[in-house]
Amino acid sequence: MFLISRTLRFIVHGVSPLRFVGPSATLLAMLVVGYLAVAGKLDFASLDLPLDAVQDLGATDPASPAATSLQPVSLDRNAPRPNERIRLATFNIQRFGEKKSADAEVMGHLAKIVSNFDLVAIQEVQSPQAMPIARLIDLINRSGGRYDASVSEPIGHTTYKEQYAFVWDTTRIRMLPDSAYMVRDNPPPHNRMHRPPMVGSFETRIQPQAGRRPFRFTVINVHTDPDEVTSSSQLNELNVLDDVFIRVREYEYQVRQITNVLLVGDLNVSTANLGELGAIPGMMSVVGTTPTNTAGNKTYDHILMDRQITTEYTGVFGVVDYQRDYGLTSAQANRVSDHCPVWAEFSAYELPPLATAGRGGSIR
């Protein structure tokens, strides 16, 4: 059984101190929105939604001495972003921890890359206090941006832990209140996924127009275990993620009336090896066979959606070659990450779907 629980979450506002939010109590005990009665599927019926209590963590202040060398940079966005479209990205920033986030050169590149996008889902953050994301947001905002972030608690079934993050431009995107949560394996120790996904829901900030509504969507942020996505693994995580996608879509439709769900992240497999996740009707990966690693020889990172429902996708996507774009050497590029950001463009306005997501993820 899986359950959905609130993330350990923070929001960064400008250069103000970082604030963490952790689970403390249970809201309504359980929300039950229906059973997923599909043969071979997981039971996602129980949804645990704990309340949050705020605590200050002064040690995570982005203005700490370790970050004082991070001077504002020229964001120099690749292209202006039109009001009627948004760009969403996913980026595995390899081992994004204390050391990397104190490297002024690397952080300057990261600030330039991230500021090209309205929303970025980040994987492989490695700091219990989420210092790397706090420093990144602070640097972008001191350079002229207006960004915020939400970060998960440290996750992983061993001593090695990672965090997920969502980073977004507050002038163009807003996170829906209380929409950040983790999809957890319950009860342990089933461990169907080494790193359970983080989920967040968003909508565009647009000029009001008669008969046009902002694009509302949910993002599932995932980093699979590379050892658990092979044909030899006992339980391929790609054959768990189809249940996650269907269950989250069902839940978001029931709670927030959202049907547009994107599953993004470092899946450690090519498009041809998405397993049961790729077999969901209408499911597509925007990158196809385009390499997404800095070496240019593997496709690991994906933005997945049901094209029958998410008609807001414009068909425009890209993989950022920051080695070429910023004139970096191979060694400099690898200091940033061994992955390239993958992005896709969407209408800023809701468009009618070709099909409707029904209960249990069925299409009708």
SSE map:
Blueprint: E1 2-6, E2 19-26, E3 31-32, E4 46-47, E5 50-56, E6 85-97, H1 98-101, H2 104-114, E7 119-126, H3 131-142, E8 147-151, E9 163-169, E10 173-175, E11 181-185, E12 198-204, E13 216-223, H4 238-256, E14 261-266, H5 275-278, E15 283-285, E16 301-306, E17 313-319, H6 322-325, H7 330-336, E18 342-347
Parallel strand pairs: 6-7, 13-14
Antiparallel strand pairs: 1-11, 2-5, 3-4, 6-18, 7-9, 8-9, 10-12, 11-12, 12-13, 14-16, 15-16, 17-18
Helix pairs in contact: 2-3
How does this structure look, described?
The chain is an alpha+beta fold and 364 residues long. 17% of the residues lie in helices and 30% in strands. Helix 2 crosses helix 3 (131-142). The longest helix is centred in the C-terminal third of the chain and has 19 residues, at 238-256. The protein is globular.
Features:
single chain, 364 residues, alpha+beta, Deoxyribonuclease I, Chain A, eight-stranded mixed beta sheet, six-stranded mixed beta sheet, 7 helices, 17% helix, disordered C terminus
Query: What's the helix count?
Result: 7
Encode the helix/strand succession as letters.
EEEEEEHHEHEEEEEEHEHEEEHHE
First-last Cα distance: 26 Å
What name goes with the CATH superfamily? Endonuclease/exonuclease/phosphatase
Tally the beta strands: 18
CATH architecture: 4-Layer Sandwich
Helix coverage percent of residues? 10-25%
Named CATH topology: Deoxyribonuclease I, Chain A
Taking all Cα atoms into account, the compactness measure Rg is 19 Å
CATH level 1 name: Alpha Beta
Structural class: alpha+beta
How is the main sheet built?
8 strands, mixed
What fraction strand?
25-35%
Rough outline: globular
Mean of all residue-level pLDDT scores: 82
What is the domain total for the residues?
A: 1
Poorly predicted runs are: 7-60, 357-364
